[in-house]
User: What shape does this take?
Amino acid sequence: MLQSFLFAAWRRKLHLCWAAAAFALAITALAPTASAQNTSTALRNKYTELGAQLKNNQFRRPLYLESSESPDALKGDIYAVIDYPFATVNTALNNPAHWCDVLILHFNIKYCKPDNDSATPDLSVNLGKKDPQDLKDTYHVDFKYRNEISTADYFSVILSAAQGPLNTSNYHIHLETVAIDAAHSFLHLTYSYSYGFAGKIAMNTYLATTGRNKIGFTRVPGGGTSGYVSGVRGIVERNTMRYYLAIEAYLSAMTAAPSEQFEKRIQTWFSTTELYPQQLHELDRSAYLDMKRIEYQRQNAAAP
Assistant: This one.
């Protein structure tokens, strides 16, 4: 009985750990002295460098994804051309309140509210399992929001949290975007976080049980029967893609009437994730839509 209880408790903590890992969309620390010109130039150079990969890839869209792992940290990056003018993207994503509408699309995000009263805005976020949950059973984390750089053709925003569940830490969210031409922008979305001993055990347990057959997007030599990366890099890549598709879904709904935008976002997010069923399928459409409608009502009704 005791062993069963401990295993159940561990599984719950494990779900929360990976929900938090899923949320952390970021790069490692950026140099605070970097100038807008240097950073925008670097991103434009990356766009040129990735020209061939953006035109020819397995995603069937102008997108490049990469991931990496070290003994105590994980990182994922997405670079993508998006069919929106820079001004539209800047209005949509250079705002903490709008980030909550993006993040809630992911099934692991159960609640998100911006706090605009302080000098440094926070995002109050609750993380949980892919299934419906009471907020009392989820994990709460506060992310600091910072507009790092904002110019006429480039912006950079960062969210960060020092601590997460199960000895995870140093969560950073970073998004940067640069104008390409009058109708297109180039977006760079990255995330990283660190983990200690408890987090490493949780990852190994997940990969030996629930996540043992899950894969990412990168083809690797010796990638088993699938030919794709698995393990912790697979987790990083799946969640990087889920959040990129959430950004796309948010942007695509901006032209709809305000009362129709949320419904369009959740419908679009689910449809685009299902383009990659091997990696991203987790829920049936009706289960996802019903859950998100309830969570969105809760998010706009009361604090956790």
